[in-house]
């Protein structure tokens, strides 16, 4: 089936799904979870072929790991779907209502976006996560995963579509593109006629390409050049804990810290303590002059490029600053508006940081690693938006809806 | 000054403006209003040059009228600015806050978008309206108006910048591009480094071009192929009033009706009455077969193209349908998701219409002409969004903000 035809089917399905009740959508999600467990065998054998092909193509081990499904992982995916069924349905919620002097009654009501396109990379679990979140929020989805996971994705889609139909909803609510060519992805980015929103999930290159080529509105996700700023009044134990956690608990993710900023007045006391902890995980430090004076020449000299880099690795840039203002200026210059933290005991500095740092999530005395739909209490997330339009920060079900004004009159004209 | 430099200045100004208090922003708005009145002479003489040039270039009268400023119009513009000063400041409003089991306190706070780019056509009043709304909502703006109004726009900008500086805010909060070339507009659409959102205001061609070429996130405004559906249970007097108002009160605007849908069971009674009213304004009717059978051959036969066309003129397409479902299907196929109305006395049909019509504003028993920031009670509007992302329908000050999560901890790590 070609993309145009898939888009048209998605639109038709989205109209039915938009009016579907919560009970029916939850039933579809439960059927999907059941079916994933029951069909684990066929999923695993499709996945095995993907993994074999990837190995033959010389794909690196970390990618193979992300691609690989196991009985355990399938169970985890199914559990995730059941969790989505338990979440509150955002559709139909009122964002307020009022009456005008002429008697018109205006209600602002949450409705699904319509058709959501998702372009993503190798992990097959995204296929199910994204489909479940779209379904619960009343949106049809067009999923374009990576070539590496195609067999897995198609099998997962086949199973989900059957379960959706069993619940009495259109199976075209979920469609996976069989054609993973670059050309078709480009076409998808111009399919304004059928797709309401595109969400890219993956590496920087993928996201850049979607932002640059799409005429469909995009929600940009992903890049995180996050900072932890240790103010002169910081509790040193707390600051050591926070930077250690923010850097090393999972360096590959977007909410991990990439640069440590330290007030000069606390640097001599704090930096050796921080280094001692970071050494346990063999974190490579790249510092400015004062940092190297304090910590010694094992610290690599930092360059301009280091301030800009999202390492996603056991590397940390370190810069000393003379004030909270200087820290904020550095963050606003080099940050990607994702997650930024200050460790401080100064009320004034905490407020200044919260106010002036331009980012989706700004922390006082906590790790940047909490920027996450689950950690925020949303129950799930479709991604973390780093743009300012529509959604910012972790996107849960609410962020997969838009509004409609419903206006009740009694013959009013203007 | 080149665009890059202007963008960089806007960013710097936006940071200061984002932290400015409401009182200071209101003071700047009052100073702007005062200065517009005081400097009416210099504005009028700049405008006179624009008008003279446009006349020499053979610009048509309706465009000349939109371009022309008068003492009265300047007073109206200044009054508009004072009205914006009276509106509630959206910045700092909380969209909710909660505490997590680990003790993290999360607050979702409204903050300015940052730098807003606006690309618009000839009307110089937009320069002041847009600047005032951006200023009040804490956003710096880069305004790229039409070449025809350049002298007027530059003079308005000069006056506003002086007033802003007098209030102690950076004058670069408002900048008008001197270079109105196509190339520079194209560059502006790619200035992601400095511009957070682009809002095109103008004709369909302008909006299309921005949507297609911009990598900066866009809020699409404008196109309105709106319908009024007269259900079989409609009150005929009310229905006649509503279609007359929706079509003829101001045919050039986006919330005017373009197609009338009529249930077959009421068509013979309703259509002659509607025609009688519409004839008073010499509205040309283009109808389907049954409409022509009822109203006679003075009604032009409607073609597929008529269902798709936003006339913005005294022309109305008329189609008879057999059910509310057929009316909804027609609207969802041909509508531009702007404003749609049903006239009915059936509760079931009203609810079906409200639920199933996919549009920013859906009306029961009222004219589509109410889709407007002022009519909705927002006090002002920067445009009417016809996309689903970020904002839908009339955009007031709230829609010129985004959110920031502020998270307070006591040393939490993950």
From TrEMBL, chains A, B:
UniProt keyword terms in alphabetical order: Amino-acid biosynthesis, Cytoplasm, NADP, Oxidoreductase, Proline biosynthesis
Reactions catalysed, as given in the entry: L-glutamate 5-semialdehyde + phosphate + NADP(+) = L-glutamyl 5-phosphate + NADPH + H(+)
Pathway(s) the chain acts in: Amino-acid biosynthesis; L-proline biosynthesis; L-glutamate 5-semialdehyde from L-glutamate: step 2/2
Keyword match Membrane: no
InterPro entries listed in its UniProt record: Ald_DH/histidinol_DH, Ald_DH_C, Ald_DH_N, Aldehyde_DH_dom, G-glutamylP_reductase_CS, Glu-5-SA_DH, GPR_dom
Location of the Aldehyde dehydrogenase domain: 101-283, 315-377
Keyword Oxidoreductase: yes
Localization per record: Cytoplasm
Signal sequence segment: none
EC number(s) stated in the UniProt entry for this protein: 1.2.1.41
TM spans (from-to): none
Pfam family, one: Aldedh
GO BP terms in the entry: L-proline biosynthetic process
GO molecular function: glutamate-5-semialdehyde dehydrogenase activity; NADP binding
Cellular-component GO terms for this entry: cytoplasm
Biological role stated in the UniProt entry: Catalyzes the NADPH-dependent reduction of L-glutamate 5-phosphate into L-glutamate 5-semialdehyde and phosphate. The product spontaneously undergoes cyclization to form 1-pyrroline-5-carboxylate.
Family: Belongs to the gamma-glutamyl phosphate reductase family.
Protein name, entry field: Gamma-glutamyl phosphate reductase
